């Protein structure tokens, strides 16, 4: 009886964790050839196809919204060749990010804020810089260091039928960055999810 009681206690401790795991759904965003990063239009770098971002969706909350998290290991983006041919830029997630997918006018809107590392690798030397970006399916804007130029980029809300989305983000390039130091930078992450939460809008 004592052995059975111990087994029941262990089972009771495991059940909440099992329920929590079952409530989470992982949807992978597969980036396509329309993804890119642009430095105020002076230089535009295509993001090679094959990149993926895993979204850990939780249970829907009040108002038909679904929260999600993304860990550093969930982001895989191939190195991006510089147009000069003399190196690459590699973007990684610096720390866990979180956001919300919400129903807006019959479509799904995504908002998230992320801390990103940009690593430059080239023969004459490289380095890593950090940026904070707000990604959205709406409009993202940023200005250059001088404040003389502002760029805006429009995203595309999640098409629930085809699971296609365009996330956009914008920031100011740091003055020691390469390429195009001090310019306004924007990016488009274009792709399709493999699956979404069934209860999601």
Radius of gyration: 20 Å
Q: How many domains make up the 3D coordinates?
A: 1
Tally of contiguous helical segments: 1
How many individual β-strands? 16
Largest sheet: 14 strands, antiparallel
Bulk shape: globular
| SS-based class | mainly beta
Helix content: 10-25%
Mean pLDDT score, rounded?
A: 87
Order of helices and strands: HEEEEEEEEEEEEEEEE
What gap, in angstroms, lies between the N and C termini?
A: 49 Å
Unreliable runs:
1-21
Q: Estimate the strand proportion.
A: over 45%
Structural description of this entry:
- The strands form two sheets. Strands 1, 2, 3, 4, 5, 6, 7, 8, 9, 10, 11, 14, 15 and 16 form a 14-stranded antiparallel beta sheet that branches.
- A hairpin with a 3-residue loop joins strand 2 and strand 3.
- It contains one helix and 16 strands.
- The protein has one helix at residues 2-23, and strands at residues 25-31, 36-39, 43-46, 52-61, 65-70, 75-76, 80-81, 88-93, 97-104, 107-121, 127-136, 139-143, 150-154, 156-159, 164-172, 184-193.
- It is mostly beta strands and 201 residues long.
- It has one domain (24-193).
- The longest helix is centred in the first third of the chain and has 22 residues, at 2-23.
- The radius of gyration is 20 Å and the shape is globular.
- It starts with a helix and ends in an 8-residue tail after the last strand.
């Amino acid at each position: 009886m004592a052995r059975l009681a111990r087994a029941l206690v262990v089972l009771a401790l495991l059940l909440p964790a099992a329920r929590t795991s079952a409530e989470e759904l992982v949807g992978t965003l597969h980036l396509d050839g329309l993804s890119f990063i642009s430095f105020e239009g002076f230089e535009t770098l295509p993001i090679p196809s094959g990149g993926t971002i895993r979204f850990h969706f939780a249970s829907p909350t009040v108002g038909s919204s679904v929260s999600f998290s993304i860990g550093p290991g969930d982001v895989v983006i191939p190195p991006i060749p510089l147009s000069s041919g003399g190196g690459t830029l590699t973007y990684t997630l610096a720390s866990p990010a979180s956001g919300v997918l919400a129903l807006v006018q019959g479509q799904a809107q995504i908002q998230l804020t992320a801390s990103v590392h940009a690593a430059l690798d080239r023969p004459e030397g490289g380095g890593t810089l950090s940026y904070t970006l707000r990604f959205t399916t709406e409009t993202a804007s940023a200005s250059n260091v001088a404040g003389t130029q502002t760029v805006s980029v429009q995203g595309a809300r999640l098409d629930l039928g085809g699971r296609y989305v365009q996330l956009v983000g914008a920031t100011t390039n740091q003055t020691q960055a390469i390429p195009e130091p001090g310019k306004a930078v924007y990016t488009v992450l274009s792709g399709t999810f493999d699956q979404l939460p069934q209860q999601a809008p």
